[in-house]
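Chapter review: from sequence to fold.
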Amino acid sequence: MGLVKHPFKQRLERHRKVSNVMFALQKSLDDWNTPTFENTFKAEVRNLDKELLPLQKSLLFSSYVSNEKISPVVMSSSASTTHLLIKTTIFFTGIIAGCSCSDDPGPQDTQQESCDVLFRINLNNAETQVELS
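The token string follows.
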């Protein structure tokens, strides 16, 4: 009989994989090594469809990602020979789903959430992958 891992640890390990979804952050690539890079990158990330980011996978205190805007913060950025590597913390709001019972008059509660992600932007074509870090 083997050791059983705690469900929370299993959840984190299961979701540390690189996303298969690719998207381009061309403006960020174009602004690399300029004073405007960080603002350009944050604007591009804010405008991404949230489904492209691993926000739902990172929820700790709520059930669903809300429709409210996200707020990315660049923690570090560097370049390898093939990719830009941008470590980012994304702050967002999650929804705590109620029971939706007929006697549940309260509005949906929201909870502040955050996750640390690594963006890998290909230097040749701006194709970007993102993973939880």
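Two observations follow directly from the output. The domain at 19-96+106-132 is CATH 3.10.450 (Nuclear Transport Factor 2; Chain: A,). Residues 1-12 have pLDDT under 50 and may be disordered.
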